[in-house]
Amino acid sequence: MGDWKGRDVLNILDFTRDELEELFDLASEYKRALEAGRVTRVLEGRIIALAFFEPSTRTRMSFETAAKRLGAATVGFTKGEGTSIEKGESLADTVRMLDAYADLIVIRSRYEGSALLAAEVAEHPVVNGGDGKQHHPTQAMIDFYTVKELFGSPDGLTYAVVGDLRYGRAASSFLYGLTRFRPERVFLVSPPQLRARPEVLLALMDSGVEYSEADLETAVEEADVVYVTRIQKERFPDPAEYEKVKGSYRITRRLLESRAKKGLKVLHPLPRVDEITYDVDSTEWQAYFIQAANGVPVRMALLTLILGGDGV
Ligand code: CP
């Protein structure tokens, strides 16, 4: 058993494969319980703070749903609105207050290192719900849980990671997460300006993950899993640079019909803009809505392990 109790979740690289497998096992139990309509209130009386300084649909709401399914209550804010941050209060002071009120803090911010700062200030555990372009560890947990559910294991598969590999924190955390498994091969597909950052490539190299850059068609032809990400418009220092790369790749039903091998699955952390066309949604390749729904049981498992609930 991993040492989960009271732990911060800042970076997927902080977790071993065994710990991730333990999380996935409990998430599967919770998924079965949810499907059977069984109620489990192991976090009754606990309070989870959701401090979202950036917009979110899935991360915020699935944490909120997970907490409430487990009997916990939530407090929090979106984009800092209605809080004293609008009066100039610092992140550190805001976190100190949440730490006084809640048992666990989930934080999302555009600033890299904000979750780390929060973890240094808070005595209660801090979960990184996304910090700038850097990390989105709970998204990677959901991604690999979904791959395991679809294929039996993340090992031995060929992955194509497509899109904004430079500014996309979900893509970076997915690539970091691959180092915890044994992928057959990884194809990186992005416009030249949006290639994976050196530190991410170094992590792949250090753990012996075989990767290469590829064009979209070749990658789709070879892949078992196509992990697509949005170009992160909001993180470009210069809007003109975004204009040069927007819409530069697109997964369409036609592309999949002509290139995909049997059993290929398309994942996407969402939200999507135009990088997967809507005609893919009703095909056998679509797995991104399953992935998004898995956010609830995976985050239920995470909250239980960190806060020391007994499980299902
Ligand atoms: N995948 C993800 O982080 O989605 P949200 O931005 O909606 O939370």
The major pleated sheet works out as: 5 strands, parallel
What number is the mean pLDDT? 95
Strand content: 5-15%
Helix-strand pattern: HEHEHEHEHEHEHEHEHHEHH
Structural class from helices and strands? alpha/beta
Q: Name the hetero compounds present.
A: phosphoric acid mono(formamide)ester
Question: What is the subunit arrangement here?
Answer: single chain
Distance between the termini: 16 Å
Radius of gyration, Cα only, in angstroms? 19 Å
Helix content: 25-40%
Low-confidence stretches: none
Instruction: For the largest sheet, list the strands in their spatial order.
Output: 7-6-5-8-9
What characteristic shape results from the CA principal axes? globular
- Please tally the helical runs, counting DSSP H or I stretches of 4 or more residues: 12
Total number of strands: 9
What features would you describe in this structure?
The protein is α/β, with parallel strands linked by helices and 312 residues long. The protein is built from 12 helices and 9 strands. Helix 2 links the parallel strand 1 (47-52) and strand 2. Helix 2 (58-69) packs across helix 12 and helix 3 (91-101) packs across helix 4 (114-121). It is globular. The model has no long low-confidence stretch (mean pLDDT 95). The chain binds phosphoric acid mono(formamide)ester. Phosphoric acid mono(formamide)ester (CP) binds at residues 56-59, 130, 139, 170, 269-271. Phosphoric acid mono(formamide)ester binds next to helix 2.
